[in-house]
Amino acid sequence: MLATQPKEVLMRLTVDGQEIEVDAEPDMPLLWALRDLAGKTGPKFGCGVAACGACTVVIDGQPVRSCSLPVGDVTGSVTTIEGLAVDGKLHPVQQAWLEEQVAQCGYCQAGQIMSAYALLEEIENPTDEDIDNAMGGNLCRCGTYPRIRAAIKRAANLKLARA
What we know:
Helix content is about 35%, strand content about 15%. The protein is an alpha+beta fold. Strands 2-1-5-3-4 form a five-stranded mixed beta sheet, sandwiched between helices. Helix 2 packs across helix 5 and helix 3 crosses helix 4. The longest helix has 18 residues, at about 145-160. It is globular. The relative contact order is 0.15.
């Protein structure tokens, strides 16, 4: 008996505020649909098993590991790091990351920033414990964790100042 190939399906997604169509197999990881089909290269492939956080995007306010979520299961609006800056103005999290000089190699930064963004959307002024809980699944092999914490606190202040 011949095995049949999975069928590609035209799916509609809302990514960074725009509705897009992707022609993909429903079990394709969202990460690859974003990178290969939608041209959103901010989310990175790190581990492929949702353990490192490099692929983190935000779906309806919740940080999600896009490497393990089938694109066919996506409901809601997807935000990638490319969707944070508005009219050329950096989001407070991005601005704080620069000001605190967080990035070293930079590979994990998009995932880190997206988790921090989701945290600050939920908790206006997070405690150290809130930050630890929200960022615990994002790994940084350069070990910039103290700078990440400082950037999140700075971003909270920047966000409050803009409000």
